[in-house]
Amino acid sequence: MTLISHCTRLAVLAVLAAPVLGAQRPTPTDTVRLSLDDALQRSGTQGEEARLARAQVDVAATQVRAARSAALPALDGSFNYQRTYASPFQVKAPSGASADSSLAPIAKLFSNLPFGRVNQYTANLTATQAIFSPRLGSALRIANYYQSASRYGLREQLAETEYQVRSAYARAQLAAALEASAREAVAQAARFLDQERLRLTAGTGSELDVLRAEVSLENLRPQLLDAQNGAAVATLDLKRLVNVPMDTPVVLTTPLTAPPSLAPTSATMGGVDDRSAVKAEEDAVRIANELVKQAIAAYIPALDFRMSLGRIMYPQEVFALNGRNWLTDWNASLTLKVPLFNGFKRGAELSQARIGLQAERYKLAQLREAVQLQFQQALGERTRAAAAITARQRTVDQAQKVYDLTVLRYDQGLATHLDVSDARLALLMARANYAQAVAQYHIADAGLQRALGVSSAALNPAR
Predict the structure, then answer these.
(1) Got the DSSP string for 117-162?
(2) Quick one: which of 10, 20, 247, 359 has the fewest CB in 10 Å?
(3) Distant-in-sequence, close-in-space partners of 186: CB < 8 Å, separation ≥ 6
(4) pLDDT of residue 213
(5) Comparing C-alpha atoms, which of 266, 280, 278 is closest to residue 448?
(6) What is the DSSP code string of 345-408?
(7) How many Å apart are CA 271 and CA 273, to the nearest integer?
(8) What is the DSSP string of 205-252?
(9) Over the stretch 419-429, which tens digit does the pLDDT of each residue have?
């Protein structure tokens, strides 16, 4: 079966007497009533895609704080106990040596020093401050650019989510309308069959007309099943996007109607650089440029300041702590780190950073072209869909007149049952095409908003 014949078969499911395409039959009290704005709000607050994008913004904010912390002083404290079992400073006079021997003064000298003591307690407070670091400013700028890019990424994700939700909502509306159409067509064919049976009983009809009516009714029943399956699948896809449980019934309260005005609009891109994706890629280029600067900074010396304040105690017993015998150890230092040679690693990192910068510039140029192309395609698709609505509405009006006249002629005996079936089929196809044109317009309009990179307020509520 070709695609055209398959679409023609689906088109037979259009409604005959349903002026509102989005109407659905009553549902139980536990049903979720879902308008388009409700769907957008649920996807923005409960959808995994939007939550993940917001998490990336939070991660970027923590990275900015981490980068800023490198410019602030670092203060560390420590407390240590050391037990010495043997040490070269533990000098003792040999056994049998007299107190006047030559080793006795040396033993007395080291016995008064802290070296080699059995018990040692040390409490330290150390402060470190980077005075000059060539990578510090670049790291902070990278973190800021990353945070900015993550915010633009959130806007892009919200715009993509809106496009998916609006498209899924329109497809679910169309599927529900086609299901209602198929059900109404079956009901009408059943009523027509009852009329033929009454005509046969009254003697004004024939068994052939009754048989044709039965065949027409049975041909519509499989199409009703197909429409029901299509509506169920489309609704499940919408539930997935808005985080509604799959077994929960849903009623779409926003009707599938044509826009109030189908006049051509002069939508403009307003500048490719206004698109959030382009701005995020521009931040990626800035990050790549800062990585080049960091690679160059690896050749520049760095200067650090360090100060340490310590208290040391050597008690005779393990727990003989007091506040009188603590010794003070206070020192400060300046450290100049000069990079000399590391096996050509810095040169390789610099070349890699420069290649990455050039690649990001190429990506930015490609993205600008793709955004402009996407906008032009979306604008053309919406214009085509608007023209299709106007043409198919005219076709529906004409098909309705043909069907009414054919039924009237049939009642007067001037038309056959086959003429009525053909007129019904033409009207079904016309209404199905009209419903599809309306759905395609809403999907195309969602695509145009996606090309512009904007999202509605309903999708992005206050956090």
Answers:
(1) -SEEEEEEEEEEEEEE-TTHHHHHHHHHHHHHHHHHHHHHHHHHHH
(2) 247
(3) 217, 220, 221, 224
(4) 83
(5) 266
(6) HHHHHHHHHHHHHHHHHHHHHHHHHHHHHHHHHHHHHHHHHHHHHHHHHHHHHHHHHHHHHHHH
(7) 5
(8) S-HHHHHHHHHHHHHHHHHHHHHHHHHHHHHHHHHHHHT--TTS-EEE
(9) 877 887 788 88
- pTM for this predicted structure: 0.71
Q: Provide mean pLDDT across the span 352-370.
A: 94
- Evaluate whether 332 touches 304 at the Cβ level (below 8 Å): no
Nearest to 294 by CA among 462, 138, 453, 154: 138
Distance of CA 151 to the CA centre of its chain: 12
User: How is residue 272 annotated by DSSP?
Assistant: G
Q: CA–CA separation, 339 vs 294, rounded Å? A: 14
| CATH class of the domain at 10-70+135-291+367-452 | mainly alpha
Q: What is the pLDDT of residues 423-456, one digit of tens each?
A: 877 888 888 889 999 999 999 999 988 888 877 7
Residue 29 near residue 248, CB atoms below 8 Å: no
The amino acid occupying position 216 is: S
| Nearest-angstrom CA–CA distance, 78 and 127 | 12
Confidence grade of residue 7 (pLDDT, cut at 50, 70, 90): very low
Question: CB neighbours of 269 closer than 8 A, spacing ≥ 6?
Answer: 371, 372, 375, 451, 452
The SS3 of residue 444 is: helix
Please give the structure tokens belonging to residue 416.
Answer: 């056959």
Residue 280 in contact with residue 45, Cβ under 8 Å? Answer: no
One-letter amino acid for residue 298 of the chain? A
